[in-house]
Write a structure and sequence with these properties.
Blueprint lengths: L14 H8 L3 H17 L5 E5 L5 H7 L4 E5 L3 H10 L1 H5 L3 E4 L3 H8 L6 E6 L10 H11 E12 L10 H13 L1 E4 L6 E4 L1 H8 L3 E8 L20 H5 L3 E8 L8
Parallel strand pairs: 1-2, 1-4, 2-3, 4-5
Antiparallel strand pairs: 5-9, 6-7, 8-9
């Protein structure tokens, strides 16, 4: 899916233009690097990754080149066209698979999947473009293996840089009362949610086990189990545009309808 932009964005940026846009700013480069680094610390070496909202394939190529098998999905035709060119050699080698089509088709195609995915990744906030997260988590539950996880980069409602905009103050009551608010975006309405709302929307399919600020770590930390139960501090979440959420698959779960 296209990069979740600021509400004032006049149009969708996709394909080669998106790559130029998303690699121009140091903040975006650092956010991507931080997310990729977290994936490498969390994912089972050589495991199966599913890159949801894969865009132009920048992340998918990064994962495949580090030994992961990658399945990827995006709804935007221009993104998928660039993806096929950018990852052509990996697709031909069978290390990357691209799935295309409408979002409802994605849900229908995968709601009865047989699992097998170790980690679903969703970088640069595709989950912030989805209103009904519960049905998405139901589908991701079907896609993932018994010990599978979901790592998602989402737009933070706590980011202090947004306080200069009137739309943030207009939506603050909704954030406090309902745990979320929606604003207009270039591709689709953008939903910003409190951490507690993500936890509620992911149940009963996943448990939210980690919250990380969307920037590189300031100092080395222990890897292993600590990465799966991390909690960013409030100041950390308020100083960057993205936050990274880690969900662990629950056994059972409801059957998707």
């Amino acid at each position: 899916m296209s990069h979740a932009s600021d509400p004032a964005a006049p149009r969708i940026v996709a394909g080669a233009e998106y790559v130029e846009h998303i690699t121009a700013l140091e903040s975006d480069r650092r956010a991507r690097s931080a997310f990729q680094d977290l994936v490498l610390r969390i994912a089972r070496p050589g495991g199966m990754l599913y890159d949801f909202g894969c865009g132009t394939g920048l992340d998918a190529r990064f994962y495949a080149e580090r030994g992961f098998a990658v399945r990827a999905y995006d709804v935007d035709p221009a993104m998928c066209e660039y993806f096929r060119a950018h990852c052509r050699d990996l697709i031909e080698a069978g290390r990357v698979t691209l799935e295309e089509g409408g979002y409802r088709d994605f849900l229908a195609r995968n709601r009865a999947a047989s699992g097998g995915v170790d980690l679903v990744t969703a970088n640069f906030a595709p989950l912030s473009l989805i209103d009904n997260l519960r049905e998405l988590f139901a589908t991701l539950h079907a896609l993932t293996a018994p010990n599978g996880m979901v790592l998602a980069s989402v737009l933070s409602p706590y980011f202090l840089g947004d306080l200069k905009y009137r739309w943030w103050w207009r939506n603050l009551p909704s954030l406090l009362r309902h745990g979320r608010y929606m604003v207009a975006g270039a591709q689709a309405p953008i939903v910003r949610r409190r951490v507690a709302d993500f936890a509620a929307q992911s149940a009963p399919y996943f448990t939210l086990t980690g919250v990380f600020r969307g920037l590189p770590r300031r100092q080395p930390q222990r890897t292993g189990g600590s990465e799966r139960s991390g909690r960013a501090s409030w100041p950390g979440l308020s100083t960057c545009r993205f936050m990274f959420l880690l969900f662990a698959r629950r056994a059972g779960g409801e059957v998707p309808h």
